[in-house]
Amino acid sequence: MGEEMDGGRPGVAATLRALNGALGRPAALWVKESGARNLRHRDFLAPRAALSAAFPGGQVPPEAVSAVPSLRGPAVLPLRVCRQTAAGLAVQVHRPEAFQRLLGALPGPAAPAAGPRTGCVVLHCPALRSSPAALRPRHLRSVLLADHLAQLLRAQGVDVRLVPALSEERSWDVLRQLRVCWPSGPGGSALADAISALKAELGRCPCAAACEPGPGTAEGVISKVHLKSFVEQQGLLGYDPNLDVLLVTERMLQSLAELQEAVLQCPAKGQSSCCSIMHVVNCEEEFQQQQLDVLWRILDPGAHTALQKHLVCGPVKVSNPSSPIGADQYFQLRKHQMYEASVIKYGELAQDEAWTEVIDTLTVAAIRFEMLSTAHRSQITLDLENNSISTKGTKSGAFVMYNCARLATLFSTFQRAVEQGTYPPLPPVSELNFSCLREEGEWLLLFNYLLPFPEVLQQAAQLPPPSKGIRMTASTETVCKFLIQLSMDFSSYYNRVHILGEPFPHLFDQMFARLQLLGAVRDVFHSALATLHLPPLSQI
Questions:
Q1: pLDDT digits (tens, 9 = 90+) for 471-511
Q2: What φ, ψ does residue 226 adopt, rounded to 5°?
Q3: DSSP character for 353?
Q4: Please, where are the H alpha helices in 207-249?
């Protein structure tokens, strides 16, 4: 690491790299603390067991220990002290300087990464090939996941293409109500040409045989293809062993043509190998998507078809359903429950017309968190009873939106007080005294949320490296879990600490430093919610 102290934004990964480098061992010895109890004594720890494995007798050379506090680098946190403890080697950060460097320049809402785009991903959501009336909560899960993942990838500079385009003649009200951003429009002549080309390729394919119309032949079937033999010849791994003969329809070829068109639109300068294809599918329809995957490989042996991956969502079970529930029914039920819960909490206020948009947004938040805060491979159970939704349950999207609104209220209250002459305006950040931030809750907000937030977004958008199998995983639950935990810790701090105190000059330094901290927390809320297409609420 460089010796000079750069004013760049500190990061967790860079600090851990510097700490590991200081001990001169290739192994990752250090961990970042996150629990409130441990953070009272240390911020980073090299556990005793790890040191024992890396050094004879677990004894770190004294010169290495004494060198740790002088570590410097553009993204390295300022370190104050390093000492041996019963738990291992413990490091504390120089907190006022860390506050200064992280809060010195507040970022605005997250913008797409600058610079050249880093590849292209086609996100294919087969659930949207059915009619809107056929959408079930299990389909909604894969749609919301694909919509969120697209936002995360774009924020990291990845070009994203969404497939299929929604047909304009159908009513997709439930997607609009859930703030899903998905392209729509007709296929056009290029799509018709692509379908014709695939038909021609099908006629030349040694794995395929034409199907003549007649008794025993399903309507619309144009060919049958032997998938199993192709999978075995190519040595493909991860496919269902029951893949065998596929009866090919024109609709299947249209699906493949749309995928091909999306690949051609990727700005990879003709290098389609730079474009990866991800099928986001619920587990009940995984088999059908595997059939299409292999058919595409047979008809289009380009590099892009070999880069297909399947992100499979676990089942969505509905507890005590009287009958199968559609996606639209599910949305309307949650909206009614959110309205009822708001009336119980806020009384007649919640019946005002101005609350319509608030309740709509709370409903979207409730559904998105219900669908996305669980790892995508795991089962979700929807409890549709009236008491299953509330405006204050700490694990809910409504709780996150409530705390975001509390921050909006705080800053609007402060602004009104400034206009009335109660407080002076917030001074320039260079004049703020961050040594006033001595509450453990303040350090918790900075160290666990503001510091790692850019890395949290990167982790959520991280796609695994190419592998031989076809299934892939992604940390699509990361942002929801981050927001829930941030809301709990912010709420605990905000309930305990009075931010806007008496208008006495000797209290202003602390108030201004706290406002700067909470302004950064507000920006994190807004940026994270934007990846879920959730607008921040100014009041609840």
A1: 999 999 999 999 999 999 999 999 999 999 899 999 999 99
A2: -90, 95
A3: T
A4: 227-234
Q: Where are the beta strands (DSSP E) in 33-93?
A: 44-47, 79-85, 88-93
279 contacts 122 by C-beta, under 8 angstroms: no
The amino acid present at 451, given as its one-letter code, is L
SS3 content of the chain, % helix, strand, coil (to 5): 50, 10, 35
Question: Which residue has 């406002």 as its token pair?
Answer: 515
Enclosing H/E stretch for 106: none
Indicate the pairing of strand 79-85 with strand 31-32: unpaired
Is the alpha carbon torsion for 441, 444, 450, 456 positive or negative? negative
Burial bucket for residue 400 (CB in 10 Å: 0-12, 13-18, 19+) = buried
Give the helix/strand (H/E) hosting 247.
strand 245-249
Tell me the one-letter amino acid at 411.
F
- By C-alpha distance, which of 431, 415, 432, 433 is closest to 423? 415
Q: State the number of CA atoms in the 13 A half-sphere of 262 facing the CB.
A: 27
Model pLDDT, residue 247: 93
Euclidean distance between CA atoms 456 and 449, whole angstroms:
9
Q: What is the pLDDT of residue 112?
A: 42
The DSSP H or E segment spanning 56 is none
- Is cis: bond before 241, omega within 30 of 0? no
The whole-number pLDDT of residue 5 equals 39
Distances (CA, A) of 239 to 119, 139, 288, 402, 466: 26, 22, 11, 45, 16
pTM, rounded to two decimals: 0.91
The residues of the chain scoring below 50 in pLDDT are 1-6, 106-116, 269-273
Measured CA to CA, the distance from residue 100 to residue 430 in angstroms comes to 9
Listed in order, strand segments (DSSP E) in 69-228 are 79-85, 88-93, 120-124, 159-163, 208-210, 221-226
For residue 303, the one-letter residue type is A
pLDDT given at position 111: 41
**pLDDT of amino acid 393:** 63
272-303: per-residue pLDDT in tens? 446 889 999 999 999 999 999 999 999 998 88
Query: What are the tokens at 83?
Result: 């000492």
Strands 316-318 and 380-382: parallel
